[in-house]
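Justification of resources, computational component.

The compute hours requested in this renewal are based largely on the per-chain cost of generating structure records like the one below. Each record pairs the submitted sequence with a full structure-token output. That output is archived, and it is also reused by downstream analysis tasks.
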Amino acid sequence: MAKTNDAAESHYDASGIQVLKGLEAVRKRPGMYIGSTSSRGLHHLVYEVVDNSIDEALAGYCDSVSVTIHADNSITVVDNGRGIPVDMHPTEKLPGVELALTVLHAGGKFDKNSYKVSGGLHGVGVSVVNALSENLKVWIKRDGKEHYMDFVRGDTTTQLTMLGKVKEKDTGTKVWFKPDHEIFTELNYDYPTLASRLRELSFLNKGVRISLKDEREGEEKEETFHAKGGLREFVQFLNASRKVLHNEILYADAERDGIGIEIALQYNDGYNETMFSFVNNINTHEGGTHLTGFKSALTSVINKHLDKSSAAKKDKELRLSGDDVREGLTAVLSVKVKEPQFEGPTKTKLGNSEVESAVKTFVNEWLAEYLEEHPRVGNIVIEKALAAARAREAARKARDLTRKKSALDVGNLPGKLADCSLSDPALCELYLVEGDSAGGSAKQGRDRMFQAILPLRGKILNVERARIDKILSNEEIRTIITAIGSGIGEEDFSIEQARYHKIIIMTDADVDGAHIRTLLLTFFFRQMPQLIESGFIYIAQPPLYRVARGKEEYYAFDEAQREEISGRLGGADGKTNVNIQRYKGLGEMNPEQLWKTTMDPATRTILKVNVEDATLAHQLFETLMGDEVEPRRAFIEANAKFVSNLDI
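The structure output for this chain reads:
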């Protein structure tokens, strides 16, 4: 993307910054502005600064952004945009950069003349980063001069200083900040997390070069993300571990009714639908009107194409559902909207009705024309959808076996489920336990009032490699679905019908246990993702060791803890008799031990499963559980060095 210098469009000075007062609340309630003070919030600081640079790219004034993680986990972000304004604001009597960094809701995003489209969701931006940093420094090059300011915990420590002259063509903003240790519980940046988001931004903003450099000792690395093909390369990246059904990626980039629409899609031989939608670079996890318009048009166009095919002549009543036409589809939809209206609890669902109409009309025209001109691709899509339709009918019969008559009817619950007494889902827990032996201990050790136990025999089906009819014909999976009670699939699933608000995976601490846990997580991620999104899925953390001396006993969850306890019980000389028991399986614990260590809410540790990055999660499940061997081998080779004990 080349820089533009259109004088009419480049009027961007302090008068374009509108002010909504107040910054003190940010330090008092940081979670309201960045989500949390843990790792998630820490990374959000980087995203806020980078978003400012990307907004300059959206406006056509920036084509290069660099992010550096320094040795002390401070961050530098540099862009070659216009530079934050440094002239005096006409009413606030402060330099534009000082306003943008010290006043909440002060920025060019509120002035539609400065930014036609911007990615900032709430407009809090870099002022929040400033408020939550021990120290923040900013350098600005514009109008042939370089300026500098310094801030401590949101307060100005130096006046705006002119450092010297630069070439007129040298413009941009450089921000360095160090997150505040008084605010954040986690101060260590995760390189893959940042790399994933920056890679995503490069796909969404074709032509913009985004680099990430890690200077921390022992972790030195550097990558550059530069997607000339935009969303084409995004789909190619998502399908890297899949066998695609047609080599060409269907792609369109257009504007309708003032709305920018970019789409890329490609079918693979898998059975899962992979769709990502974005509005102004914001990942709309909950979808919205743009996605509704796309899905509606896709189903309509493919059904019309089917009507003209030989298959329709054999069965004139044949109609494909939305699920049928999206089986094996990998698609990315990105729209640019001047004034997006977001809905939903996380504000990631688009509500603009005019966007649905624009996307629907455009896709109807573009896709119909493409399939007419590319009959081979059209036939491939039709054949894939017809196979899905046949499987759907078989799945309907299998699904009937998993349906409950009502949420309160326990008459057809699986026989091996040891249910709990309470009926309030918010208070109830379901343990998915590996094997009958551990299941027996869990049934005896549990609190029958609120804890239900479902023993699982062996390994469930790998749903990454199976169509829905095969999934629903698997006895163990049917048992899980019936026990949970929420149904399965887009049409039948209802989170309100879930009989438990804690579903806890409890497997042995060995390779087989890890595999079973991965299979279960794959099933929930692909077939019942709403349970993960609602925070209902957990992983139990049973101890690895029992360390005892006489009547004293303690439990260790790793080798370091075992050594610490052993040393403490053994005395200074370490010669006192200490008994160490290694638990390879849950069945080795008696019911009392299992309750005390793994099931008692007062003493247990359980991990909540969540999806921080949907793109990264999709890639990981596809790599580990998909059909393609090479990506899995590459993953194992790259990560083998992190394995300390192959069979724990």
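The domain at 425-542+607-642 is CATH 3.40.50.670 (Rossmann fold). The chain has three domains: 14-225, 231-400, 425-542+607-642.
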